[in-house]
Design goal:
By secondary structure, the protein is α/β, with parallel strands linked by helices. It is built from 15 helices and 17 strands.
């Protein structure tokens, strides 16, 4: 039976595919060789600081996997054990909607999606590749944000909200970049869920030394998106496997990494934001800045129960170390965009429907080919909860007016499919 939605849908996880000059168009001349494309065996590859990266196998995005091509794998419906390459099938050439906002708006209309939060794809490699140099990291981020504003703007018609990258690795430069993107209309910023390249080496971005940055975030009221990224955890997986090499975004997954990673990055990130241990390392940014709002995007939702359990145990063992119960901070300051294949019942029971946000990961191959097929996961929820997850929460987080209710879209069928 078709599901009919009578409200404007907001998709918390859309992606663009960058053009070849995304990192170089606005790069200062003295850094002109920081990012370069080279030919290797007849294919273009990206070189960062003279090191070739395979983070994205085809970094030009001239040809890409079809949206949703890997749905069977991520839904656990792969009895024949096909590889991702086999599941991908025939790739497609990039279409204008992957590269510019006017065409993407037309796709949103076809999908029955009113608005989306839009994230980069290739830019996820920048901070990890430059993690030893906070100053150069800020140069690269600024150049990318200028390209993003050129090609997409930060707010296109109140319907496509892009996420410029901001990093507190150099606090003063981070605040300056935050103010710059806010002046240009940003309503959300992208912060990597990982340690930052601090001036004394990698460390949590929630240490007190970064408080001036978070104070400005709180003052501005801007939403902070912690989107899955190259967070440097491949180093730890390599240690277990006795191997080397970089994180690759769309690889045939190795079984150990697939099992062991399971939300580790975002758990560590949010534990650092929540936990306040005066006798130790004093991360608890969310106690010091209670109005900062964080949304976890494309990190799934299965890890939330594990983090909640660990926070509860820490509270019971060391209640004097927490000015506020850590579960209160989790539910007060953090919103979750689960994977489309996740079960929502437990997540909503733990966090509340007002903290869960729909996202399709369109047009990535591991995302949904048809975003509104997500409604198949909402069977049994009250209509008010469905509207919260699919619409209200993101409009409220971004401070956007919701269009007047009217019949938006009919979704077929009432379950997810990789067809």
């Amino acid at each position: 039976m078709a599901t009919t939605l009578d409200f404007p849908v907001f998709d918390a996880d859309h992606h663009l595919y960058e053009t070849e000059d995304a990192f170089t168009r606005h790069l200062p001349a003295r850094h002109r060789d920081l990012f370069r494309f080279v030919e290797l065996n007849g294919r273009k590859k990206l070189v960062v600081r003279n090191l070739l990266t395979e983070f994205i196998p085809n970094p030009t995005f001239e040809v890409v996997a079809r949206p949703g091509a890997h749905m069977a794998f991520y839904s656990g419906d792969n009895p024949e054990g096909k590889s991702l390459r086999e599941l991908t099938g025939t790739p497609m050439r990039s279409i204008p909607a992957f590269r510019e906002p006017k065409a993407r708006l037309e796709v949103l209309d076809e999908q029955g999606v009113h608005a989306c939060l839009l994230f980069p794809t290739l830019a996820s490699l920048v901070e990890e590749r430059l993690r030893d140099d906070p100053t150069l990291t800020q140069v690269a981020i600024r150049a990318f944000n200028d390209w993003l504003h050129d090609d997409w703007t930060y707010n296109y018609a109140d319907r496509i909200l892009t996420t410029p990258i901001v990093s507190p690795c150099d606090v003063d430069a981070g605040i300056a970049e935050l103010d710059r993107v806010l002046r240009r209309g940003a309503r959300a910023i992208l912060v990597r869920p990982a340690p930052v390249a601090g001036l004394r080496g990698p460390c949590s971005p929630f240490l007190p030394e970064f408080d001036p940055f978070w104070a400005r975030v709180q003052e501005a009221g801007v939403l902070v998106a912690l989107h899955a990224s190259n967070s440097g955890y491949q180093e730890y997986l390599n240690t277990w496997e006795g191997s080397s090499g970089e994180y690759v975004a769309f690889p045939p997954p190795r079984t150990f990494a697939h099992v062991a990673d399971g939300g580790r990055t975002i758990q560590d990130t949010l534990a650092s934001a929540i936990c306040h241990l005066p006798s130790a390392i004093c991360h608890g940014m969310l106690d010091r800045f209670p109005r900062v709002r964080l949304i976890s995007v494309e990190n799934g939702g299965g890890w939330v129960g594990i983090l909640a359990r660990n926070l509860e145990l820490a509270w019971k063992k060391m209640p004097g170390e927490f000015p506020t119960h850590p579960l209160e901070l989790l539910r007060r300051n953090i919103w979750i965009n689960p994977f489309w294949e996740d079960s929502l019942e437990g997540l909503i029971s733990l966090m509340g429907s007002d903290r869960v946000c729909f996202g399709s990961d369109y047009p990535h191959p591991e995302g949904l080919a048809e975003p509104l097929s997500f409604t198949g996961q909402l069977t049994g929820l009250a209509p008010a909860d469905i509207e919260r997850v699919m619409s209200t929460n993101m409009f409220e987080l971004l401070g956007l007016p919701r269009p007047a209710p009217h019949r938006r879209a009919a979704v077929v069928p009432g379950c997810l499919s990789s067809d």
